[in-house]
């Protein structure tokens, strides 16, 4: 039930990678997926970096220290943003990134 005096409207939302100048950077890391003798995942993790090739160097170092650890997962953190209404091209900036104060 809607409270008296309130107007509800449906708003279309769009989700896209945040490419704005103030967006957080995309970061990269690698995690070792190789199972140990007790069937637990190694789980060793590279440093998180802005350069996607740096975790690859870590994987080779990890292999040298742990022969047989040859399975890895890439962890990419890429910022995304929600737009409502017509989107960033048609809306003014007061309509963007609702909920985070910008």
Helix-strand makeup class: alpha+beta
Strand order in the largest sheet: 1-4
DSSP, total strands: 4
Number of helices: 1
Radius of gyration based on Cα positions:
22 Å
Order of helices and strands: EEHEE
Q: Give the mean pLDDT.
A: 85
Which residue ranges are poorly predicted, with pLDDT under 50 across at least 5 consecutive positions? 90-98
Helical amount: 10-25%
Estimate the strand proportion.
15-25%
Q: In whole angstroms, how far apart are the ends?
A: 31 Å
Task: Tell me the overall shape.
Answer: elongated
Could you give a short account of the major beta sheet? 2 strands, antiparallel
Q: What does this protein look like?
A:
With 102 residues, this protein is an alpha+beta fold. Helices cover 12% and strands 22% of the residues. The protein contains one helix and four strands; from the N terminus they run ββαββ. The longest helix is centred in the middle third of the chain and has 12 residues, at 54-65. The chain is elongated and about 70 Å long. The two termini are 31 Å apart.
Topology overview:
Elements: E1 13-17, E2 27-32, H1 54-65, E3 72-77, E4 80-84
Antiparallel strand pairs: 1-4, 2-3
Brief descriptors of the model:
elongated; 22% strand; two-stranded antiparallel sheet; alpha+beta; two-stranded antiparallel ribbon; 4 strands; 102 residues
Summary of the model, kept short:
The chain is of the alpha+beta class and 102 residues long. It is 12% helix and 22% strand. The chain has a two-stranded antiparallel ribbon.
